[in-house]
Amino acid sequence: MLKPLAFVAAIALASPLAALDLSSMSDDERAAFRSEVRAYLLDNPEVLMEAIGVLEQRQAEMAAAGDQQMLVDNAEALFDDGFSFVGGNPDGDITIVEFMDYRCGYCKKAFPEVEELINADGNIRFIVKEYPILGDQSVLAARFAIAVKNLHGTEVYKDLHDTLMTMKTDITPEALVRLAESFALDADEIVAKMDSDDVTREIRETALLGQRMQVTGTPTFIIGSEVLRGYVPLSAMEEIVAKARQDG
User: Fold this and answer.
1) Is 114 exposed, middle or buried (0-12, 13-18, 19+ CB in 10 A)?
2) Would the pLDDT of 65 be above 70?
3) Could you check whether the bond before residue 132 is cis, i.e. omega within 30 degrees of 0?
4) Each residue's pLDDT tens digit, 171-230
5) Where in the chain do CATH 3.40.30.10 domains reside?
6) CB-based contacts of 183-191 (< 8 A; 24+ apart in sequence)
7) Looking at residue 80, what is its pLDDT?
8) Can you give the pLDDT at residue 42?
């Protein structure tokens, strides 16, 4: 049987509303109470694990609720901003948004798995958010990709995007010129376009969106109504897409 003070401590841990007002105790009573609490927890460490589990669950629920509100508040910018690349099936029943950076190792790791998911499924709308946060080379690559999209359309953009995602060398102006030439594109025209107002606006608007969505790293995915921060393996993405369809 638990000692009386230990029993009270257990009740207090289980329900914060039942916690005692320690300020009403004498110094001796407080010392005894704390001693009993410590002894109880040492004898029953599973109580701590249970409390930690409850805390983590509550934190996860609060984070999910916050993500849901951010999705509602930023829906138009996320799903219909008028400039982000839209691939896959534009009429798909599930939308995946990816905030990505061409210098991000985990973006590169996720790239073939995202492609496999979209191609195998056939009913996913895929939106790319150019989110260059890893330095000057990231910004250079993003400006290049957006300039190509705005000059030559989404099909050429997608081919260049795929190439940039698989590049293992540094992204330099010279490398981008060679890349443009390999696609028989006018490199001078693209370079001139890279610092244009429309390219700058797209990068700025996406950066502001990322800040509002609390995107602090890449890749960050939005699948259905879930915000996934970091690399997600193919099997997990498939499960999340299936759940999104089930939830309607």
Assistant:
1) buried
2) no
3) no
4) 999 999 999 999 999 999 999 999 999 999 999 999 999 999 999 999 999 998 899 999
5) 75-247
6) 183/156, 183/159, 185/148, 185/152, 185/156, 189/151, 190/144, 190/147, 190/148, 190/151, 191/147
7) 96
8) 81
Q: 209, 77 in Cβ contact below 8 A?
A: yes
| Selection from 229, 218, 225 nearest residue 128 by Cα | 218
Token pair 């190509």 is found at 148
* Range of lowest pLDDT (41-50, 216-225, 229-238): 41-50
Return the CATH fold of 75-247.
Glutaredoxin (3.40.30)
Given a cut of 90, whether residue 118 has pLDDT beyond it is yes
As given in the structure block, the two tokens for residue 86 are 């839209």
* CA 61/CA 68 separation, integer angstroms: 10
Calpha distance 194→89 (Å, rounded): 28
**Helix (H) and strand (E) counts for the chain?**
11, 5
